[in-house]
Amino acid sequence: MKKTIRFFLNGKLKEISVNGETTVLELLRSRFQLNGIKEGCGEGDCGACTVVIGEVREGKVHYKSVAGCLYLAAKLEGKHLITIEGLAQKEKLHPIQEAVLNAHATQCGFCTPGVILSILALYLERPNPGREEFRRYLEGNLCRCTGYASIRKVPEYLKDLIIDSEEIRPSYLEETEEKQLAFVHEDIFIDDGAHAYYSPVSEDHLEAFIRDHEELVSGQNLRFLNGGSDVVVGIKKRNQHYRLLVDISRISSLQNISYRDNQLTIGGGVTLSDIIDRVNPFFPQFSDVVSGMCSEQVRSSATLAGNLVNASPVADTVPLLMAVNAVVHLNGCNGTRNVPVREFYHGYKQTENKSDEWVASISIPVGEYDFIHFEKVSKRKEVDISAVNSAIALQISEGMIKKASIACGGVGPTTLYMPKTSHYLEGKPMTEETFLGAYDIISGEASPIGDVRGSADYREAVMENLLMKHYLAYESSQEAECHEE
């Protein structure tokens, strides 16, 4: 096992020792004096700390934008880190920099490096992006000078420069990619006596490590992470430190998506961005839910498994997974276990998985329901945490509800599956009166509390209103089908 990390920084190979809790933001500003990266919110919401990461997946180097304030430096092993300092060649601006300049898309300049690197990640991965793709990659970049109109014009100015996709690629990429593809990956174990970091390349290695290091994995000393976005926020802002962080993001067996016999299986290491791109043909409603979560810089590393295990009572993926009765598959040294998402939560931040178990995959039944719908209420449309969210899944035949499943978040210590409300809807006509009649039932199944996002009474009212929004969404879908016919 290695005690140092090797990675490429703007095309140059680096081998360094790092603390397991050091972020890319801290590494760049303190160790390398590369100060183009800025710290704004420190929570992955503003985009000022955006950098580009090139990593090998399925025999090819792929690029993504990440939030440097949340991305642990130890995760850089074998990857290529690109910063704003690595774009301009001597006195010649990179085409994206030139387009930003020509579009007058920079004012105070604080957000500009992050904006440019988000655009770079997009064009490296998708050479001819559409307007929606551009919007998706930039939705996590806040401009305090409100220069959004100019920023949105950058693709037009890139076209005016009459460049091809090769000109977008920094000159050192080809050589660096060859070296990355030839990289030999090993387990990493860093321990300074207070905080340790372990990153295995296989589940077999992980099991062996857990068995050999009982003193590190006992009690509450161990914390698994993949993207690690919420874990790092806890470390940096809530003083939540762990004796051992186990990073399972390099285990390839956890990064698969498969669809067979109406069963969608998403590996524990699959990122939210991959879900948006690859799950839509099988489960479009789920892709839509994930698209409304966090920013691209966070989605590119955060995982569905992490969203589940984090156990937030307002996690957006959980109500939909409960509604369709998804199952979490856990692996550990003592074998495997399968737990329905509806039974996964025992209380606030309390989950079924044991401290030495990790999420291998999540299986989702597809095709069982005629209508599936998700709603959330938050202060912002995107990149915001829900105050209340709700999902419903219905089997409908000849205007009657044959089977119903509904779950709500933000109205209890965990996301709540609503068995009484679900049962009440079954066997009744698919009408407004039926859903109005369910108001008292659903209110009796929840116990909301007040916080900064809304009072208890507000949350209860929103929960009831979302029940009606599900019905109205069904009505709209039927009208749309009639117009298509």
Automatic annotation (TrEMBL):
Keywords: FAD, Flavoprotein, Iron, Metal-binding, Oxidoreductase. It comes from the Bacteria. PROSITE patterns: 2FE2S_FER_1 (PS00197), 2FE2S_FER_2 (PS51085), FAD_PCMH (PS51387). GO terms for molecular function: 2 iron, 2 sulfur cluster binding; FAD binding; iron ion binding; oxidoreductase activity. The keyword Oxidoreductase applies. CDD domains: fer2 (cd00207). Residues 190-369 form the FAD-binding PCMH-type domain. Signal peptide: none annotated. It holds the Pfam family CO_deh_flav_C. Residues 3-87 form the 2Fe-2S ferredoxin-type domain. The keyword Oxidoreductase applies. This is Xanthine dehydrogenase small subunit. It comes from Lacrimispora xylanisolvens.
